From TrEMBL:
Keyword Nucleus tagged: no
Xref: SUPFAM superfamilies: P-loop containing nucleoside triphosphate hydrolases (SSF52540), TolB, C-terminal domain (SSF50960), WD40 repeat-like (SSF50978)
Segments annotated as WD repeats: 395-436, 437-478, 479-520, 521-562, 563-604, 605-646, 647-688, 689-730, 731-772, 773-800, 802-843, 844-885
Domain NACHT residues, every copy: 86-205
Pfam family, one: WD40
PANTHER family on file: TRANSCRIPTION INITIATION FACTOR TFIID, TRANSCRIPTION INITIATION FACTOR TFIID SUBUNIT 5
Keywords: Repeat, WD repeat
Protein name: NACHT domain-containing protein
Biological source species: Hirsutella minnesotensis 3608
Phylogenetic lineage: Eukaryota, Fungi, Dikarya, Ascomycota, Pezizomycotina
Length: 984
């Protein structure tokens, strides 16, 4: 039962002055009251009380303490700065006690105003659906007016004139409701009317709310029924244009049908919705009798079919006529929006077919040559992202068991707690580790973000709670006071209260802004293992090793009730989004669902083979995830208790689970030191090229393009087939991260550079290690072969042996004739050397950040340098003159190379057409046909400068290799993505 306050009526000019009687004939007044009376509501109320048993004060007193009732009770206070609250709406399902609650309120008001001559009067009525004399609008209005006139007889003047003409028929004929409505309005506007409170019970039992659709004359009744079917079965309220498409009716017919079904439907701001839950309940309960004899399954099948028809007729390529690469945030839908009529269909068509079950219509639509198959065959590319899959990625890095996980509200940050005494912050989209929060002197047991995302709280075995700034990682303050390990933390919905649970058997409430301790909740006989606030913030649940869950009032600290039933320690608690269901997990291997308002146990979810360590509801409340010591996560339907699926893959106990805000990603933490991300809808593992256990630091194609080498922070080089993505072999031997790889011109030798200060030479065909080149005193950052293959140059942070750079050397390259060596450095310069003598020729300056790569054109007349300043500079190596700066890169440029004809420059982002060409002869150019400019610009792949393919965030990387029409993206997670392009 939920009281709701709204503004409704306005009463006028009551100042407590004496009301003057109009001096009507007493007998005439009596006749009017006698003929107006249907029933004495006061007597009727006593009858209801006797029938339903004696009214207990405790059953209604609680409502008198609510903010809504307090606001309503002040409706007559004259406060110009505040609108009066003149409607108290009590809403609830049948049998929840609304009638007795209203009787209690009436009794309370009668007692309150009994001795006050200036107090408002009461007029009330109890609708009763089973009594034909008391279940209609006319009876309701007659009774309310009757009670009003009994107490304020001077208002009889407003019906006297009509009564003198019509007599008793004024209140009983077919126009009685309209005549009384006008008289009632005049009474309300009478300046001499004293304040009055109207109380009406069970308006939904008035038979005038039933549809009467069988008697519709202006529109075919079947059209009305079709509109009602769509409204009743839709998964969300429909816009008018969506309803027109789903009903398959002309717009005018649909609009008129909505008007005629006004007892069930309402339209506001172009949205059509059912007026009340009772309307939904009525339609569901009478669906086959009143709407569609074939049942709801066929109704869903029809809506699925019409959705396919609507999408097939409307959808087409590039409906908004946008240029390639147009950013979504800059998009504005045209008016009218061509997608508006099918917005609902695009999202829910499959759900309707699912709900239709095994109907013959559904089978026909889903057959091999059915409407759905034909639609998907034509439309899939524009409608669906084929990259689905369940297990998305594993986040590694903690040095001990991961104990908890939590998402920031916008879903772009994931926090994980560990027994290694740290909290790690991750990007869940890419798996990239952002920062580590250190400071706790014991294992970190729990983490929680404040609702505004500006504070992260961590609980620890060191008996403290630490508050952090998740944006910067800065430690703000430490909350001390618990006498034992802190096991859990939770923020109240407004973020102004923080609760912490502890093995000292208490729960403490804090002000997170100041760190001030507000109060301590005591009562558990065992350690408190978890805490959770209800969504409305009015209830705090605490789980304990004493096998119970306790419910508290966080405002006062009062203990409300204890939930008992688990056979072992309770390890976790979670509220469903609407707050009407509480889930508790236990070491007894079960999850229990409770009604937190009554404490009633609803059902027990069984199936885990180990203790249940954590529970979490999806944001839409339709899925419950439970983590267990049996190394699995189980997904349940909280409405039915049905087990949906089991997520397997962790190598040890699963300790925590959390849903991303949109509900499409589930994170699980485990004692195997990992965090796994899942798609809770499917459970299907997505195929990826994985193998490296560290970030990919460099990639290079062999000269013939048939082999791709990738270097990694996991100390290995991996060789791949770029045509199939197959992993061929792993080259192991380096003692630290591998930083660079390079093939000899004939492709039969591969060189790898490493932070272990060595260069290794390999046979890429067999994977055999040939030799190790030692001598550098710092990590080796780059390698390059001379064109004739007789010299290998290596760059290092030790700045030797060709000395002159003021900082680490990042890259080296030989000129085509082998006479010049170019070196790139962190000192923001490029130096040119005589390869034969080692003499320094000149220094090229101009970059604003580290220079990361250098390359000569095939004729040796142009040198390109790449930099972290996001530019590429072109130089004349003969004179050192700066020719051109190529700008617009979306990130640091880490690789450069010229196309064979010198017309294109390839960077780690792709190929760019140069505004001038190297001086190659026309005869030489003819041997190298023109290629398209293929380029990776951070989040876009462009062809000849036009954006063609958008890259999701976890596929963006500075490590990019382009060979012909093949693009390879190296990811920080250790994976490689191969993209084969076809450009006409």
């Amino acid at each position: 039962m939920q009281p709701v306050v709204k503004n409704k009526f306005t009463f006028h000019n009551y100042d407590g002055s004496k009301i003057v009687s109009q001096g009507f004939n007493q007998n005439a007044e009596t006749d009017i009251l006698r003929d107006l009376r249907v029933v004495d509501p006061a007597v009727d109320m006593k009858k209801i009380e006797n029938k339903k048993d004696r009214l207990l004060a405790d059953t209604y007193k609680w409502i008198l303490d609510t903010d809504q009732y307090a606001c309503f009770s002040r409706w007559n206070d004259a406060q110009p700065d505040r609108d009066p609250c003149q409607l108290l709406w009590i809403k609830g399902h049948a049998g929840t006690g609304k009638t007795m609650l209203l009787i209690g309120i009436i009794r309370e008001l009668e007692n309150k105003y009994k001795s006050d001559s200036l107090a408002p009067s009461l007029s009330y009525f109890f609708c009763q659906g089973t009594d034909t004399t008391l279940n209609n609008a006319t009876a309701t209005l007659r009774s309310l007016v009757w009670m009003l006139l009994v107490k304020q007889r001077h208002l009889i003047s407003h019906v006297r004139e009509e009564y003198d003409v019509s007599g008793p028929t004024l209140f009983k004929d077919g126009h009685a409701f309209y005549a009384l409505s006008e008289a009632f309005q005049r009474m309300l506007n009478d300046p001499n009317m004293s304040p009055v409170l109207f109380v009406i019970d069970a308006l939904d039992e008035c038979d005038r709310t039933k549809p009467g659709i069988e008697n519709v004359e202006e529109v075919d009744p079947q059209d009305c029924k079709r509109v009602l079917v769509c409204a009743a079965l839709a998964f969300r309220p429909l816009s008018l244009c969506e309803l027109i498409a789903l009903a398959g009716l002309p717009p005018k017919i649909t609009v008129r049908a909505i008007e005629l079904c006004g007892s069930f439907l309402a339209a506001r701001e172009e949205t059509v919705f059912l007026i009340h839950q009772s309307a939904k309940d009525y339609l569901d309960g009478n669906f086959e009798d009143r709407l569609q004899q074939s049942g709801t399954a066929q109704g869903h099948a029809d809506m699925g079919r019409r959705s396919i028809e609507a999408m097939s007729s409307v959808l087409k390529h590039n409906m908004y006529d946008l240029d390639y690469g147009f950013k979504r945030e800059n998009m504005k839908a045209p008016e009218p929006d061509p997608l508006a009529p099918i917005g609902y269909s695009c999202v829910f068509w499959a759900d309707h077919f699912f709900e239709s079950g095994e109907t013959s219509s559904c089978k026909r639509q889903l057959s091999d040559d059915g409407a759905v198959f034909r639609f998907l065959k034509e439309q899939t590319v524009r409608l669906w992202d084929p990259a689905t899959g369940a297990h998305r990625q594993t986040l590694e890095g903690h040095g001990d068991s991961v104990t908890a996980v939590a998402f920031l509200s916008h879903g772009k940050t994931l926090a994980s707690a560990s027994e290694d005494r740290t909290v790690r912050l991750w990007d869940p989209a890419t798996g990239v580790h952002r920062q580590t929060l250190e400071g706790h002197r014991g294992e970190v047991t729990a983490v929680a973000f404040s609702p505004d995302g500006k504070t992260l709280a961590s609980a620890s075995g060191d008996r403290t709670v630490r508050l952090w700034d998740p944006a910067t990682g800065a430690h703000r303050q430490t909350l001390e006071g618990h006498g034992d390990s802190v096991t859990a933390v939770a923020f109240l919905s407004h973020g102004k209260t923080l609760a912490s649970a502890s093995e000292d058997r208490t729960v403490r409430l804090w002000d997170p802004a100041t760190g001030v301790h507000r109060q301590t909740l005591e009562g558990h006989r065992g350690e408190v293992t978890a805490v959770a606030f209800s969504p409305d913030g009015k209830t705090l649940a605490s789980a304990s090793g004493d096998r119970t869950v306790r419910l508290w009032d966080p405002a006062t600290g009062a203990h409300r009730q204890t939930l008992e039933g688990h056979g072992d320690s309770v390890t976790a608690v979670a509220f469903l989004s609407h707050g009407k269901t509480l889930a508790s997990a236990s070491e007894d291997r079960t999850v229990r669902l409770w009604d937190p308002a009554t404490g009633v146990h609803r059902q027990t979810l069984e199936g885990h083979r180990g203790e249940v360590t954590a529970v979490a509801f999806s944001p839409d409340g339709k899925t419950l995830a439970s983590a267990s010591g049996d190394r699995t996560v189980r997904l349940w339907d909280p409405a039915t208790g049905a087990h949906r699926q089991t997520l397997e893959g962790h190598g040890d106990s699963v300790t925590a689970v959390a849903f991303l805000s949109h509900g499409k990603t589930l994170a699980s933490a485990s004692e195997d030191r990992t965090v796994r991300l899942w798609d809770p809808a499917t459970g299907v593992h997505r195929q990826t090229l994985e193998g490296h256990r560290g970030e990919v630091t460099a990639v290079a194609f062999s000269p013939d393009g048939k082999t791709l080498a990738s270097a990694s922070g996991d100390r290995t080089v991996r060789l791949w087939d770029p045509a199939t993505g197959a992993h061929r072999q792993t080259l192991e031997g380096h003692g630290d991260s591998v930083t660079a790889v390079a093939f000899l011109s004939h492709g039969k030798t591969l060189a790898s550079a490493s932070e272990d200060r060595t260069v290794r030479l390999w046979d890429p065909a067999t994977g055999v290690h040939r030799q190790t080149l030692e001598g550098h005193r710092g990590e080796v950052t780059a390698v390059a072969f001379s064109p004739d293959g007789k010299t290998l140059a290596s760059a290092s942070r030790d700045r030797t042996t060709l000395e002159g750079h003021g900082d680490s050397v990042w890259a080296v390259a030989f000129s085509p004739d082998g006479k010049t060596l170019a070196s790139a450095s962190r000192d923001r310069t490029v130096r040119l050397w005589d390869a034969a003598t080692g003499a320094h020729r000149q220094t090229l300056e101009g970059h604003g950040d580290w220079v990361t790569a250098v390359a000569f054109s095939r004729d040796g007349k142009t040198l390109a340098s790449a930099s972290d300043d996001r530019t590429v500079r072109l130089w004349d190596p003969a004179t050192g003159a700066h020719r051109q700066t190529l700008e617009g890169h979306g990130d640091q440029v880490s690789a450069v190379a010229f196309s064979p004809d010198g017309r294109y420059l390839t960077t780690n982002f792709g190929s760019l057409r140069l505004s001038f060409t190297s001086a190659l002869s026309d005869q030489h150019r003819d041997k190298h046909p023109t290629v398209h400019s293929l380029y990776v610009d951070n989040e876009w792949i462009t062809v000849d400068g036009k954006r063609c393919l958008w890259l999701p965030s976890d596929y963006r990387s500075p490590e990019v290799a382009v060979h012909g029409n093949t693009i390879v993206l190296g990811r920080r997670s250790g994976g490689l993505t191969f993209l084969e392009t076809k450009v006409a």
